Amino acid sequence: MLLEVLVSILLFALGIVALVGLQASSLKTTDDVQYRAEAVHLASAYMGKIWAAAVMNGAVAADISGKFETGGPGYTDFSTQVTAGIPGASQPTVTIVATNDQVTNQATGLPVTVPGATVTITINWVDRENNDISHTYTQSSIVSYNL
What we know:
Elements lengths: L1 H56 L2 H9 L6 H11 L7 E12 L6 E17 L5 E12 L3
Antiparallel strand pairs: 1-2, 2-3
């Protein structure tokens, strides 16, 4: 009878230890998800600013290239938000490449050249609390006119 009680206490203790380990693992995952969500939010908000500038000014690639790329005047605030909002984040990189797509105008059936740009935003950070694991979030979008 005493042996059975000792075995049941041992199994109960192992279960408690396993639950504590699971809790610690879930806390690490929660931090990772929080920083990843912040990276998604910041990149999407910045992409929205780029889209707004392109729509307001009318000239897609010519207007947004110098202003919003890494080092441009529109980039400074974004970079500050990323490094302040995500611990261990380095300055993000933003590249804008001009494109000219050939599409068919549905109304006329004629080919039309549509100017645009491919915008890529990359945010890197190192999770120092979780064994210096490196993380990267990349968002890419084509900014162009709709026909």
